[in-house]
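During the reporting period the student researcher (J.K.) took over the structure-prediction task from the postdoctoral fellow and processed the backlog of single-chain submissions. One of the processed entries is reproduced below for the supervisory committee.
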Amino acid sequence: MTRRQPQPALTPWRHWLHTIIFEADTPGGRAFDILLLISIITSVIVVMLDSVNQINARYGPQLATLEWGFTILFTLEYLLRLVSVRQPLTYARSFFGIVDLLAILPTYLSLLVPGTQYLLVVRVLRLLRIFRVLKLGQYLSESRTLGQALLASRRKISVFLLTVVTLVIIVGALMYLVEGEASGFNDIPTSIYWAVVTLTTVGYGDIAPRTPLGKALAVGVMLLGYGIIAVPTGIVTMELSRASEPVVSTQVCPVCAAEGHDTDARYCKRCGSLLEPNGQG
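J.K. obtained the following structure tokens:
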């Protein structure tokens, strides 16, 4: 078995930077995260206000300046996050690393494709860090349990979705044969659209059967829809009951920036590096 080579220690200034940016258990780190959360919320509000025509017409230049200001701020923060870990590519490929990158790309893309700046609302995903910032370890544990349940349910849900797709195709084809263009079912794709809307109990009402046979088929689809809705819920509930509920800490790995470690963990669950005690450094 090959022994893992020890990672070189962070330089003092990178260690200090990591403590400020990633550790919420230090005064400086907590202040940084709170300011970051406020900036995220403000930037999302700015993007939403910019989409309102009346506000955009009056304050468009000012809102654009604010958007660019937040983008530059978050770009600098993203670069500092990469610098403050020993494996920047590992962090860049992590969930929060991808979210942090997506939070700044739309503004730059808007220079080439106007309108893409409204995708900046993805920044709201960065608010998930609030559980770590406010030391809500129990919420981190619950989110981990939910993630385990969804992951364990993926095969069952995939089979279920494939069955539903097959069913709506068959129902759509039957409704096209029964009703036809006279009732608005102009083609099979349109009939499949009606089947999906009906099966999910949404019921827009833009297309409806008119013949007795078509209405009878619609009743069957409606009743079937109520049963189908309960299936994925039952699958996930079963996996939730099986999933363990470990308590996790707010500790962040100084090498790969992985989170969600057990409270008694000494080494990173992802890269195996030694974890530093919270609040030290």
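The committee noted the following: The chain has two domains: 12-135, 152-242.
J.K. will present the remaining backlog at the next meeting.
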